[in-house]
Amino acid sequence: MSIGLQRLREDAARVRQGAIDKGEDPSVVDAALDLDARRRALLGEGDALRARRNALSKQIGDAIRGGAAPQGPEVARLREAASEAGARIAAIDRELAEIEAQLEEALLRIPNPADPDVPVGGEEASVIVRTWGEPAPHVEPRGGGADGSAPWTRRPHWEVGEALGMLDLAAGAKITGSGFPVYRGAGAALERALIDWFIGVHTREHGMTEVWPPALVNAASARGTGQIPDKEELMYVVTRDELYLVPTAEVPVTNLHRDEIIEADRLPIRYCAYTPCFRREAGAAGRDTRGILRVHQFDKVEMVLFERPADSGAALEWLTRAAEELLQRLGLPYRVKLMATGDMGFVQAKKYDLEVWAPGVERWLEVSSVSNFRDYQARRMNIRWRPEAGAKPEILHTLNGSGLALARTFAAILEVYQQPDGSVVVPEVLRPFIGDRIGPPPARGSRTVRSG
User: Fold this and answer.
1) Burial 152-191 (b: 16+ CB within 10 A, else e)
2) E strand or H helix at 373
């Protein structure tokens, strides 16, 4: 289950309002309450009948020991009553199994209520909480002429990438279909450099443990993080084997501790992981069909945290800063948005989006979502922690964040760092991996990654 039954019973109004705030059908809350009430009534009736059957068995024994004939009318009456009780108990057990399955399904369809400080509404209600850097203009006033005085216009990333032989979108469409880009030469090197650098910062500086998980998960794993049933239609399915291609490393990494009890001295547990990510949703928006802003397959480094409940609020802020640090060191201007209830997703309690400015397309591009799920995912996966030796296990909190998603980060780098001569200057932190500049030969003495 996702929402605890105790919480549902005691705080049904807030759970119902939470569904409304997220644009979900609140009737599932009432359906779950009705099923829970019926379940409890059946459990009570079943317990009473079991007690009656036990009492009747004792009466039968007492009657026989008192001299009644085993086949006599008194014993026969008691046995008939006991048989009727047993038949009703069997019927109750069958009905309970059906109701409990229905209740479990209903609970999975109740969204996680947002935290009280999350703004209510759709995309327009989301709040920009801070910005960093000065967004580059689409038209640069100087630098395009021989004397550096003429203006020049920044091109979209797909034009830059194709001109430098970094992106081959046509080949990807031929091999697989639209939304599956091919990175060539310096494009492949840049993609690999970003992954390597992200993982290095997270492991060496942020104290995370690297995980290299499978790119396929089973239904239990997808259900545990909330992809099923909420986002099942957005996932690629390997039907023959009943497996799903991962939409993000969040799914396999969070499931590492499914059905486990974690001792307090092991917390917090903080992982990072690279995976390719697969999503069927790509191409839905017409303006996103060009380039690599919406693709079916992309690379991403994910951060996943397991935290004490009292610490998860502070952990969300720490995790957001960890993602921001990457953007700052890449020199990419960005903004942080606190997402409103209707724009934050089914399973999150609180979510920040990090968006970089891409001057070639003149848009803010989401490159990271950082979320606190509180106990919602952990309850689905039965991940608990023990506050102290001998204490009763409790549900812990899970969080995750992109650190970072590469397709749009890649696009932003091409658009921010492109030069009037068509080359792209490499962000300083990536130069040890791929050199100073991509494209036409730079000034003498600097290193170059040539496309090819």
Assistant:
1) bebbbbbbbbbbbbbbbbeebeeeeeebbbbbbbbbebbb
2) strand 363-374
| Location of structure tokens 């204490």 | 391
Q: Is the peptide bond before 442 cis (omega within 30 degrees of 0)?
A: no
In this structure, what are the phi and psi dihedrals at residue 298, rounded to the nearest 5 degrees? -150, 165
Cα end-to-end span (Å), the chain? 52
- CA 396-205-192 angle, 5° bins: 100
Please write the tens of the pLDDT for every residue from 92-137. 999 999 999 999 989 989 999 999 999 999 999 999 999 999 998 8
Mean pLDDT of 218-241: 88
Interatomic CA distance for residues 320 and 397, integer angstroms: 16
261: tokens are 């009890």
Crossing angle, helix 406-417 and helix 185-204, to 10 degrees?
110
Q: What is the pLDDT of residue 452?
A: 43
Tell me the percentage of the chain whose pLDDT exceeds 70.
Answer: 93
Q: Which helix (H) or strand (E) holds 327?
A: helix 312-330
The answer to whether residues 109 and 28 touch, using CB atoms and an 8 Å cutoff, is yes
Summary mean pLDDT of the chain: 90
User: Which pLDDT value is given to residue 185?
Assistant: 94
Q: What is the pTM of this model?
A: 0.88
For 9, counting Cβ atoms within 10 Å of its Cβ (0-12 exposed, 13-18 middle, 19+ buried), the class is middle
For strands 297-307 and 269-278, give the pairing. Answer: antiparallel
DSSP secondary structure code for residue 339 in this structure: -
- Per-residue three-class SS string for 386-442: ECCCCCCCEECEEEEEEEEEHHHHHHHHHHHHECCCCCEECCHHHHHHHCCEECCCC
Q: Which of 382, 251, 397 is nearest to 311 (CA)?
A: 397
Query: 422, 352, 17: which is closest to 186 by C-alpha?
Result: 422
Confidence class of residue 68 from pLDDT cuts 50, 70 and 90?
Answer: low
Measure the CA angle with vertex 430, ends 324 and 249; round to 5°.
55
Q: What is the mean pLDDT of residues 205-214?
A: 97
Give every strand in the sheet of 424-425, ordered side by side: 424-425, 437-438, 448-449
Asked if pLDDT for residue 55 goes beyond 70, the answer is yes
The answer, yes or no, to whether residue 140 has pLDDT greater than 60, is yes
Beta strands 216-218 and 243-245 are: antiparallel
Q: Tell me the one-letter amino acid at 324.
A: E
Which residue has 């492949």 as its token pair? 188
